[in-house]
Design a protein that fits this description.
With 122 residues, the chain is of the alpha/beta class. It has a single domain (5-113), classed as Response regulator (Rossmann fold, 3-Layer(aba) Sandwich), CATH 3.40.50. It has five helices and three strands. Strand 1, helix 3 and strand 2 (70-74) form a beta-alpha-beta unit.
Length: 122
């Protein structure tokens, strides 16, 4: 989800070229509605959307699927460290700073979809 069509297009191309099936939405509310209709394994959302914040998107999605991985992309943290901490503390959320490179996005997606196993004391 991103309200900037060029960012959506670039993100879609990077992920599609890597073999991922991609759905996109121009706003947070449209993205949440789309996810309810066609659930995905991962959500990538901008922090600042035209209608609602990425934080709102994370909260809405958490009500539906508490374990859904979410990557928040943003050029800034929106001035709210507390909201960012809340989103990160909700689990399965990571942040990717704009501008990002293809390799950074793909690495974040791979990590979100396949998190490393926790170390055990054996």
């Amino acid at each position: 989800m991103d309200d900037d069509p060029s960012i959506r297009q670039i993100t879609r191309r990077i992920l599609s070229d890597a073999g991922y099936d991609v759905l996109d939405a121009a706003s947070g509310d449209a993205g949440v509605r789309l996810w309810r209709e066609q659930p995905t394994d991962l959500v990538v959302t901008d922090l600042r959307l035209g209608d609602v914040s990425g934080f709102h998107v994370v909260r809405e999605l958490r009500l539906i699927d508490a374990a859904l991985p979410v990557i928040i992309i943003s050029g800034d943290t929106g001035g709210s460290a507390a909201q960012l901490r809340e989103a990160l503390d909700s689990g399965h959320v990571s942040v990717l700073r704009k501008p990002f490179r293809s390799a950074e996005l793909l690495s974040a997606v791979q990590t979100a979809l396949h998190p490393p196993e926790p170390l055990t004391d054996e």
